[in-house]
Amino acid sequence: MKTHLRLALLLSVALLLSTSPTSPASAATAAVATTAQAPSDTYYEIFVRSWYDTNGDGVGDLDGVTAKLDYLKSLGVDGIWLMPINPSPSYHGYDITDYEAINPQYGTMADFERLVQEAHKRGIKVVMDLVINHTSDQSPWFKAARDPRSPYRNWYEWATRATDLKQISATGGSLWHPLPGADKSSGQFYLGVFTAQMPDLNYDNPAVRAEMVKVGRFWLDKGVDGFRLDAAQHIYDDSEADMESPAALKKNLAWWHEFHQGIDASNPHAWLVGEVARHHENELPPWMASLDAVFNFPLATRLVDSAKQERDRDIGATLERMYDAFRTDAHGRFDDAPFLSNHDQERVMSQLDDNPEHMRTAAAMLLTLPGHPFVYYGEELGMRGEKPDEHLREPMRWYRSGKGAGETTWESWSAGDGNAVSVEAEQADPHSLLNWYRMLIQWRRDIPALRTGVLHNWRDAGEHVAAWELDDAQGDVLVLHNLAGTPQTVPLPAQRFHTLLKHTLPGTTVADGHLQLPAYGSAILH
C-alpha cells in the first residue's frame, strides 16, 4: 500500500512542479484544496466473480475485494459499487432468490461485514446493487405464487382473460411468460420485463413495497452506504407503451420517493443512484426529486463519441442545460453519476477501436466533471470487451502472464489483451493508463471545483477542444481537453484563467493571453 501511495504522490508532485510559473503561486492556492484528505468522489464498479479469488475455486469472492482494498485506495477511489452479491441461480446475480443473504460462492455474511469494516477504515464507501424490480423464478416467493391461493400470488403480476399476451416489453422481448403447461384461459402467465427467469414484482401491492424498504434497511444496518438501484425505471415501465407514459413515470417516481423516505429512517445519509437507461438528457432531471443521482447515459455516449471523433460534441453546453434542470427538479440539490461504460456495454477501449490516446482523453473528460464519476473495473488498465455480456465481465487482469495468486478463472479472456494490459505491468510504468487514472483522480482531491463546481459552457476553445468552467466557493477553474492529434491554441480572457494549475503533457503553456495545448493534452487553469 505504501508503495502505491508513494507513486501516486510522486506523480501529483511532479505535475505541480511542472505547472506554468507565469502567475504567482498564491493565485493558484485559492482553487486548490489544502488537505491531503480531501475526497475524490470517484466510485469503482466491481463484479465480485471476476475480481480476486482467495480460495482457489476460480471464482472471485468478498475476501478478494477486501484483499484488494489497498489497490483501490492507491487508485484514489472513495467508493465501490458491488454488482449483485445475493444468492442467485445465474452467474451475474441479477435474479435473486434471497435478498437478505450472501451468494455462497462469494463467501459469508461475516466476510461481507469484514469487507465493509475494512473499506470504511480506508475511507472507502460501499454501495450495493439492489435488484428489486424482479426476483428469480427460483425465489421461494415466486414458487409459492404459482398457487393462486398463496398469499404471495399478488406479489407478482398475472395475466387475465383480457390481457394481450403478445405485448412487447420495454426491453424489446416478450412481456408475458407462461408457467409450464399454461394456456391463456388458465391465467398462468406472469409479467417479466427482462426474461422469463426474472418475474416482475407487483409494486401496487403494499406488502411488496414494505418488504423492499425492509430489505434496504437490513443492508444499511450491515453498514452499507447506499444502493445502486437496478432497472429503476422499470418498476412501472413495463411495456413498449409505458416507455413514454407520463403515468408510468409518475408511479416510478412516487415509489422511489417512498423508498428513499423509508431507508432515511435507518440512515439519512444513505446514497441512492439509479439505473435510468434513458438516452436523452431531458429525460433524467425528473428523477432527481426522488433519487440522489442517476447514471448519465446520454453523457457517456457524448464523451466517448467526442473522444473518438476528436471533436467536441457540445459537451459543455449540453451539461450546463442538464445540470440547471437537475437543480430545478431537485430543488437546488445536485449530484450526477457520469461514467464511460459499465457491465452491460462494450468496454471503452473497444468502443474507441483500441486507440490509447482516445482512451486517455475520454478518461480525462470523465474525471474532470462534477458529481461522482464511476469507473468500471479494468477500465483503468484499458481492458477490452465486446458482447456477449460474459465477455464484458471477464476476469480482472492482475498479472502479465494472466496467471497468479487470486486470478479468477471462471471465464477465459476473449479480447486478446496482451501482457501489458495488467496491474503488474502498469503499476511500475509512470506513463501507463493506470497511472494516468491515478493522476486524474488525484486532481479531483486537489481541486474542489472538479467535484462540486457549477458548470458553465466555455465557447471560445474551437471544435477540437472540449472546455467548461467550474465555479465554487474556493475559486473558479477552466477545464480544457484537446481531443485532436494536433496542438491547439486557445485564446484566454484578459483578466481570468492565466494560472496553469494542472496539465497532463509537456509543452502545455500559458503566454501572451493564449493557452498552448499539445495533442491530446488536458489542462486546468485558474
Structural notes for this entry:
- The chain is of the alpha/beta class and 526 residues long.
- It has 2 domains: 2-133 and 202-451, TIM Barrel (Alpha-Beta Barrel), CATH 3.20.20; 137-200, Alpha-Beta Complex (Oligo-1,6-glucosidase, domain 2), CATH 3.90.400.
- 31% of the residues lie in helices and 13% in strands.
- It contains 17 helices and 17 strands.
- It has helices at residues 2-17, 25-29, 48-51, 62-67, 69-75, 109-121, 140-145, 206-221, 246-264, 297-309, 315-329, 348-351, 356-366, 389-392, 423-427, 433-446, 449-452; strands at residues 43-46, 79-82, 125-130, 176-178, 189-191, 226-229, 271-274, 293-294, 374-376, 454-457, 465-471, 477-482, 488-491, 500-503, 509-511, 514-517, 522-525.
- The strands form 4 sheets. Strands 8-7-6-3-2-1-9 form a 7-stranded parallel beta sheet. The protein has a 5-stranded antiparallel beta sheet with strand order 10-11-12-17-14. A 3-stranded antiparallel beta sheet has the order 13-16-15, with no helix packed on it.
- Helix 8 (206-221) crosses helix 9 (246-264), helix 10 runs antiparallel to helix 13 and helix 13 (356-366) runs parallel beside helix 16 (433-446).
- The protein is globular and about 80 Å long.
- The relative contact order is 0.12.
- The model is unreliable at 1-35 (pLDDT under 50).
